[in-house]
Design brief:
single chain; alpha/beta; Nucleotidyltransferase, domain 5; RNA-directed DNA polymerase activity; transferase
């Protein structure tokens, strides 16, 4: 409606508007920016941008370790100095060494326990010479270390904090060698997990596409004294047979045999320089493992080592090549199945380039 000598009003109902965001809607991000703008010192982040970027983008760091580092840089760790200032009580000092004041920098660098850890580490670092705040120390490290070294640094800092909490709440004290071993073990586990099951790898691989070569793999296994197994794979260029390979080995389980067959096919085709291939297997678990659809812990323990090795080879090769793995029914894997049975029964090891006449289809 139009008021006399006044502006035109909207017919829509009134609604709440959050003025700190452009679209008028509330969000955590817009609220955070509003808090920064109203901070007493300035409207800029409380720590430098390069430190923020390092905390959130360093590889092989646990999410909770990133949050710990963020809080340490903001002097927000619940150490004795923070408790004393908030509760207006007398400081109890460091629970490990008895120092007058326990700050985040003291726990992570200045405490004699922490100094021994850093001096024993491969950094051989004298932390008593570092600045008195975590933020200044991080700024020093960022300027002098590469990203891989910073990952190791964060792992040690995180372990030092865990050791401090364990001492405070459980009364347990760790030796420097134990702290370093735990930090190194965590870093190695993260590196392995990142290489094996990286989301980036799965996204880059994408769904199976039509490729030039088709490689059919299979294995034949029987329960016997020596656990004999026959392995085979058959390679096709569209509808033309390129060649086949079969051999006999020892395997602990049917899955172990299927895994060995695919592993040998991967290595043989990679050696031939084939970069455009779809591997077909009638073992669903094997396909799920290669495509990251199930966990390694689901496999037979007898085949665990082979699974880890095969997965590393597959991820390394399939990223640069157009390699995919699909699951097929056993009814469509007849030739590879017959070759694998022949290899198990006859105990042979051979390669052929024409259709195998000794196989009765």
């Amino acid at each position: 409606m139009t008021l006399p000598d006044g502006p035109t009003l909207s017919q829509r109902e009134d609604r709440l508007i959050f003025t700190a965001s452009r679209n008028g809607q509330f969000s955590i991000k817009s609220a955070y920016r509003l808090l920064l703008m109203n901070a007493p010192n300035s409207g800029t982040p409380t720590i430098p941008r390069d430190i923020c970027s390092t905390i959130w983008h360093t590889k092989n760091v646990l999410p909770r370790a990133r949050l710990f580092l963020w809080r340490a840089a903001h002097e927000a760790l619940l150490v004795d100095a923070v408790f004393s200032s908030r509760l207006a009580r007398q400081s109890d000092g460091c629970s490990i060494c008895g120092a007058h004041q326990e700050t985040a920098a003291h726990v992570l660098f200045k405490c004699p326990q922490a100094q021994q850890v850093w001096l024993t580490s491969h950094f051989s670092l004298r932390t008593d010479l570092l600045p008195d705040t975590v933020q200044e120390s991080l700024d020093f490290f960022i300027k002098n270390l590469d990203m891989q070294q910073i990952s190791k640094l964060v792992a040690i800092m995180w372990q030092l904090w865990k050791d401090r909490c364990k001492h405070c709440f459980e009364g347990k004290r760790s030796r420097p060698q134990q702290t370093l071993a735990a930090a190194n073990r965590m870093l190695l586990n993260l590196q392995t997990a990142d290489k094996l099951f990286s989301t980036a790898i799965l996204e880059e691989r994408g769904p199976p596409n039509y490729t030039k070569y088709m490689c059919w793999t299979d294995a034949s296994w029987v329960q016997s004294g020596h656990h004999g197994a026959g392995l085979a794979f058959v390679l096709f260029d569209h509808d033309q047979l390129v060649g086949y390979w079969l051999t006999s080995v020892e395997a602990d389980t049917p899955f172990h045999a299927e895994l060995l067959s695919l592993k040998k096919a991967i290595r043989r085709l990679h050696g031939l320089g084939i970069t455009d291939c779809t591997f077909k297997t009638d073992c669903l678990l094997l396909k799920q493992l290669l495509c990251g659809e199930t966990n390694v812990s689901e496999v037979d323990w007898q085949a665990f080592h082979e699974v880890m090795d095969t997965k590393l080879v597959w991820d390394d090769v399939s990223i640069t090549n157009r390699w995919h793995c699909t699951h097929i029914s056993r009814d469509f894997n007849i030739l590879a199945d017959q070759l694998a049975k022949y290899a198990r029964v006859r105990d042979v090891d051979c390669v052929g380039y024409t259709f195998p006449a000794f196989i009765n289809m």
